[in-house]
Task: inverse folding
C-alpha cells in the first residue's frame, strides 16, 4: 500500500526502515504538499492576537534592532507573513527544479522541512524578543515565560521559586499592559503568589539565562526544542517520507508556531515525550525512561504517558531486571529534579504545583467547566469546580480501560494512541481548557502513527528473507 502511495521512503519498491538516503518521487511531492499545506494554514493567523501592550517608548538596540526598525518599532505581522509566502515560493521553485528526478536526497528533504519551520517560527519570535529588548522585560512576552525566567534567576541566586512572592518582581507590571504598578493587580492576580510550573522549567531557565541578552529570552529555548521535534520524529524506525511529513506537522503546526513567539512553553516537554516513544521502538529503554522523566519535569501533562510507555515495554518482552532498571532511571531523574525543591519547602511546592495549578485558575475555555458555566450548573468562573470527582468518575475508568486494551492487544502503537485519548479527555474535564492544549493529544496521535508505521515496516525484511530461503530450498 505504501508503495502505491509513493511513501515507501525509497526510490523503488519495498519499505524504508530508517537506512534509506532518499525518498521516492511520490514521497517527495507528498512532502511538498504537506509543507505547502502547513504554510497555507498558518498564513492567515500568523502573528495575530498579541497582547495589547502600551510601552511608553521604543529604543531599538543590539542584535535585533534592525528587525525592530524594519517593523516600524511596533508589532507587525507583515514581515512574518511575507516570509511565509517566500517560503511557499521557494518550495514551488524546488518542486519545479525537481520535476525530472526519480527520487530526492533525504538531507535535502529534511532541509526543506527545517526551512519551512524556521520561516514560520523565526520572524515573529525574533520580532517579539527585539521589541521586548527595546522596551522593558514586562512587554512583548507572556506571563508564563516571564515567570519562568524570574524563577531561573532566583535559582541562580540560590533562592527557591516555590513559595516566592512575585508581586514586586516586575511581573506585576505585565498585567497592566502599560508597565505601571497597580495594587489592584497585585491583589487580584493569584499567579503572583505561586509558581505553578514543574522544576524542569526553572532549571532549564537558570541555564538558558546565562546567555547574553536578548538571546537569554526563554522563548528561544522553546523554539529550539520545537525544532528538535523533527529530530524526535526522525528517530522512529518508520518509512522516511512519513517521518519527514509527520515531523513537519510536529514542528510547523499552527499551535507550535504561535507558542514560540507568544510564549507558551509546552514544546520542550512534547519533544522529549515524543522522543521517549521513539526510543522505545529503538529498544533504548533506559534512555526512553530518562527522556520521559525529563518531559514530566518540564510539564506535568507528560506523566499521563508513563503507564502507556510502561505497558509498551511489557508488550515487547523486556526482562524483569531490565524493567527494574528502567523504572529506577525514570524515578531517579524525576527525583533529582523535584527532591531539592520538595526538601526546601514541601508545603510551598505542593501548594504551587498541585493545589494552585488544579484549583485556583479562573474557569476559561470551551471544555466541560465552560459548558457547565454556560448551562447555569456552575455559578461563576471563580467558584469551585469538582475536578477530582469528575476525573475519578470519568477519566480514570477510561484510562484503565485503555491500558487494559493495550495490554490485551499487545501492539505498540496502541500505547501512544491510548495516551492521546486519555490526555484529550483529561484536558476536556479540566478547570481550564486553553486551545493550545490540543497539541498534546495531537502529538500522541502522531507518535501512534509513527510507531504503527515502524512496526508495519519491520516485518518486511524478515518476510523477504523467508521467501528467499523457500526459493533456495525449492531450487
Result:
Amino acid at each position: 500500500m505504501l508503495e502505491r502511495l509513493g511513501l515507501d521512503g525509497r526510490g523503488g519498491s519495498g519499505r524504508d526502515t530508517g537506512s534509506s538516503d532518499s525518498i521516492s518521487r511520490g514521497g517527495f511531492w507528498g512532502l511538498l504538499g504537506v509543507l505547502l499545506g502547513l504554510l497555507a494554514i498558518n498564513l492567515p493567523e500568523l502573528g495575530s492576537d498579541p497582547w495589547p501592550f502600551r510601552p511608553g517608548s521604543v529604543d531599538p538596540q543590539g542584535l535585533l534592532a534592525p528587525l525592530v526598525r524594519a517593523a516600524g518599532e511596533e508589532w507587525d505581522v507583515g514581515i512574518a507573513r511575507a516570509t511565509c509566502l517566500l517560503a511557499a515560493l521557494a518550495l514551488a521553485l524546488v518542486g519545479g527544479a525537481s520535476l525530472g528526478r526519480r527520487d530526492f536526497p533525504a538531507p535535502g528533504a529534511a532541509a526543506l522541512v527545517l526551512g519551512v519551520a524556521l520561516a514560520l517560527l523565526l520572524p515573529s519570535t525574533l520580532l517579539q524578543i527585539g521589541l521586548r529588548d527595546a522596551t522593558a522585560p514586562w512587554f512583548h512576552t507572556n506571563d508564563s515565560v516571564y515567570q519562568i525566567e524570574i524563577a531561573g534567576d532566583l535559582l541562580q541566586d540560590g533562592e527557591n521559586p516555590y513559595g516566592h512572592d512575585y508581586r514586586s518582581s516586575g511581573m506585576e507590571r505585565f498585567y497592566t499592559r502599560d508597565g505601571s504598578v497597580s495594587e489592584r493587580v497585585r491583589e487580584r492576580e493569584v499567579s503572583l503568589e505561586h509558581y505553578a510550573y514543574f522544576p524542569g522549567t526553572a532549571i532549564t531557565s537558570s541555564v538558558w539565562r546565562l546567555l547574553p541578552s536578548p538571546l537569554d529570552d526563554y522563548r528561544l529555548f522553546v523554539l529550539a526544542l520545537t525544532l528538535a521535534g523533527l529530530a524526535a520524529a526522525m528517530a522512529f524506525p518508520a518509512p522516511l517520507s512519513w517521518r519527514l511529513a509527520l515531523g513537519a506537522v510536529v514542528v510547523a503546526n499552527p499551535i507550535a508556531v504561535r507558542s514560540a513567539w507568544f510564549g507558551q512553553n509546552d514544546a520542550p516537554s512534547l519533544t522529549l515525550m515524543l522522543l521517549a516513544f521513539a526510543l522505545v521502538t529503538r529498544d533504548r529503554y533506559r534512555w526512553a525512561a530518562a527522556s520521559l522523566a525529563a518531559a514530566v519535569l518540564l510539564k506535568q501533562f507528560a506523566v499521563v504517558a508513563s503507564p502507556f510507555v510502561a505497558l509498551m515495554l511489557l508488550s515487547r518482552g523486556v526482562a524483569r531486571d531490565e524493567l527494574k532498571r528502567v523504572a529506577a532511571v525514570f524515578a531517579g531523574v524525576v527525583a533529582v529534579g523535584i527532591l531539592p525543591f520538595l526538601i526546601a519547602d514541601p508545603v510551598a511546592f505542593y501548594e504551587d504545583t498541585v493545589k494552585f495549578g488544579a484549583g485556583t485558575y479562573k474557569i476559561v475555555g470551551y471544555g466541560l467547566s465552560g459548558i457547565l458555566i454556560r448551562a447555569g450548573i456552575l455559578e461563576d468562573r471563580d467558584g469551585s469546580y469538582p475536578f477530582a470527582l469528575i476525573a475519578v468518575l470519568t477519566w480514570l475508568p477510561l484510562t484503565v480501560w485503555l491500558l487494559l486494551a493495550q495490554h490485551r492487544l499487545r501492539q505498540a502503537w496502541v500505547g501512544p494512541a491510548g495516551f492521546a485519548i486519555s490526555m484529550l479527555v483529561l484536558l476536556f474535564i479540566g478547570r481550564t481548557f486553553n486551545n493550545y492544549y490540543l497539541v498534546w493529544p495531537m502529538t500522541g496521535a502522531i507518535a501512534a502513527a509513527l510507531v504503527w508505521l515502524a512496526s508495519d515496516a519491520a516485518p518486511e525484511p524478515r518476510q523477504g528473507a523467508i521467501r528467499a530461503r523457500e526459493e533456495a530450498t525449492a531450487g
